[in-house]
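The instructor's notes for this session suggest beginning with a concrete chain rather than abstract definitions. Hand out the sequence below and ask the class to guess, before any prediction is shown, which regions might be ordered.
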Amino acid sequence: MDNKTIIAFALMIVIYIFFFQKPVQQPASISTNTINSTSPTLPSLDQKKAEKLDPIKEKIYQLQNENLQIELNGVGTIEHSSFLKYKKAVGSKDPVETSFPDGFNESFLQTPAGLVKWSSSTQTDQTITLHGKSGDLLVERQIQLSPDNYLVHFSDDLTNSGSQSTKAIARVKLTHPPLPEVPSTSFLSKIFMPRAEIYEVVSEVDGSIWREPFLKINHPLEKSGQVLWTGFAQKYFYYGFIPQNVSATTLKLDNQKDVGYLGELALSEKVLAPGEKANYSYQFYVGPKDLSELKKAAPELTEVVDYGSWIGPIARLLLSILHMFYKIIPNYGVGIILLTILVKVVLFPLAFKSAVSMRRLQVVQPKMKEIRDKYKNDKQRMNTEMMALYKTEKVNPVGGCLPIFLQMPVFFSLYRVFYASIEFRQAPFFGWINDLSAHDPYFVTPILMTALMWYQTKLTPQPPAMEETEAVQVQRAMMKWMPIVFGAIMIFLPSGLTLYFLVNALLSLIQQLYLNKHLHLKFPLAGKAIKT
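After discussion, reveal the predicted structure:
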C-alpha cells in the first residue's frame, strides 16, 4: 500500500470518527468556565422546609389527552410521564415512560413573609386547582394539560389582600435523574458501535442557543439574560420550561450526586399595591422532539433538535422533502428511495461533466506522454506544460472525485436526520427493516451497497498508471478503498441512511454504464481531436 493510499484511507477514518464516534457516557474531567451573572442572587430555598410547608404534596393527580399522560403531586410537580403514541420497542404495546423520583418541575412563590403555603388542592376534569397564602398574598394556581399537544399550563393568580404593598418572587426548579451507568468499551467499539443516548440542557438565552451536555456540568453554572425556554433534551424527547407573561432572568445549572441535574430559573419579581392582582403564567413541554409539536409550543423551540450548524439547513430541507414524500406514500423507506432519485437527478449534470473530464483525460494521454518524455529532466517545466494542457483541453485530473465530495454534505445531513428525527424511530420499511433509525440487523443493505460501489469503481474510467500525478494517485486510492471504508462505516449506522446509499450505488452503477456507452461514442480513444 503506497503513501497516497494510506493518506486517503486515514482521511476517511478521521472524518468518520469526527462525525459518528459514540460519545462517552461516564463522568469525565472536563473543564467548564462558570458564567458570571450580574443579577442579584435570590434567597436559597430549604427543600425540607418547603416539603413541610406543603403537606398536600403527597396527593397524586393524573392528567391525560390522546398524546400524553402525566402524574403530578398535590402542588403540581410532574413525577411520571407516558408518551402514548410512542412505544418502548418495536412490537411492544407499552408506551415510552419517564419517571422523576424527585419530580421534574417545582414552582416556588415567595414574599417577604416567606414561601407560599398551600392549603388545598382539587381536580375537576382536566384542571387542578390549588390555593395558598404567604402573608397578605393570596394565590390560586391552575394546572391544565392541553387537549391536543404536550404542553402543561401553569397559571398563578396573585392578590394582595393587605393594606400595604408587597412583592412576589417566583422560581422554577427543573430536575433530571442521574444518568444510568454505562460500562466502559474498547476504542474499536466506540468507533463502530452506534452513538448512545444523548443528555444535555438546551436553552435559548438572549436569542442564542446554549447547549450544555450533562457530563460537562461538573460545577455550578449561571447565565443571566432573558431565558426564552430551557430544559433537558434526550435523543428523542424534551422536558422543558417556557415562560409566557413573565421573564426568566437567570438560569443556573448544577449537578448533585444523589438528586441529578438541576436547572433553576429566577422569574421577574412583581410588586403589588393593596388590592392589586398579578399573574405568573408559564408552560412545561413534556414530549417528543418532533418539529411540528415543538413549533406548536413555541416557534423557536425547534432549535432543540440538533441538526448541526453548517449542515443544519441542508438536514431540515431533506427532512421536509421526506415529509412531502411521506404524505404521498406513507412509508419513509419509499420516501428515502424517492429522495435518492431526486438527489441523483439534481447532481447528474455535475456527474456528467466529471465523466466528460475523465474521458477527455484518457483521450489526451498521447499528448501527456509526449510532454513527459520531452521534459522528463525538467519537472517544473513539465508541470507547467501539463497545467496548460489541462486548461486547453478542459481536463480536470481529479474531476472524478467531484460527485463523491458533493454528496458528502448530503451524507452528513442525512445522518443527522436519521439519528435525531423522531419520525424515523421504529419507522418500518419492509421485511426485516422495521426501524429506519437502527442499523440493519442482518447487514444485508451495507453488504449489497459495498458490492455495488466496488463494481462501479471497476467501470469508472481512470488514467493509466504511467501517467499518474500525485492528485491522480490520491484519487485512485480513494476510489479503491472507498467501498470498503464506506461498507465498514455503514454497518452500525441507521438503516435509513444505508438504504439511501444502497439505492444511490445502484443508480450510480446504471449511470456509469450509460456514461461509458455515451462517452465512448462521443470521445473515442483513438487520439482524435476533441470537439468542444
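Then share the key points. The chain is about 35% helix and 25% strand. The first strand starts at residue 60 and ends at 64.
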